[in-house]
């Protein structure tokens, strides 16, 4: 294999960095010991630029080609050394389409009743329709009685239309954005051929 360019990055399947290479883990290196590499990287990835400079940090990150966002491309403007992105995002209701459901149908409804005299003009949770008789015109009658106060019966069932509607919204939970992955080491050449500019 020919000598790599100084600053060249490649993937390595082993769990160590070969001689002349270093892991791309953001570590600081001495400028005085790696003058050639510093002249290529500068402080793009960190360091004070006086005594130290940093290697790119590709731990849990994917490299992406830099872009100056060509007009009409729909791509983001990405600068050399820019590190952005998260492994999950939280979606909010304003980012989600509304979800609306409507249900229609019919059901046969049987109304319970009993044969005892009514004892109340208003229903309660344990009352049913009952017998109510009053000869006076326009009289208010006791139409409801307790469920078990007389002989139980059921009025003739009848069909009723049912309409149910509802709108549902999310709960602002984090959503993972990471693609399927395989962990590998990125390594950078500390020594080799110094690259010349075109």
């Amino acid at each position: 294999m020919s000598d790599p360019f100084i600053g060249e990055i490649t993937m390595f399947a082993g769990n160590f960095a070969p001689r002349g290479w270093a892991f791309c883990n953001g570590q600081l290196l001495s400028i005085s010991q790696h003058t050639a590499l510093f002249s290529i990287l500068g402080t793009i990835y960190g360091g004070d630029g006086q005594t130290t400079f940093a290697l790119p940090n590709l731990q849990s990150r994917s490299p992406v080609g830099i872009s100056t966002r060509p007009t009409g491309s729909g791509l983001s403007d990405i600068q050399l050394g820019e590190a952005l992105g998260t492994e999950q995002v939280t979606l909010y209701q304003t980012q989600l389409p509304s979800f609306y459901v409507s249900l229609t149908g019919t059901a046969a409804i049987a109304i319970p009743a009993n044969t005892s005299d009514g004892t109340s003009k208003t229903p309660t949770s344990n009352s049913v329709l009952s017998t109510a008789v009053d000869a006076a015109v326009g009289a208010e009658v006791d139409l409801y009685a307790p469920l078990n106060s007389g002989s139980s019966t059921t009025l003739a069932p009848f069909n009723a239309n049912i309409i149910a509607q509802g709108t549902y919204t999310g709960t602002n939970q984090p959503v993972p954005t990471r693609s399927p992955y395989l962990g590998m080491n990125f390594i950078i050449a500390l020594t080799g051929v110094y690259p010349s500019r075109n």
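The two ends are 23 Å apart (CA to CA). The mean pLDDT is 88.
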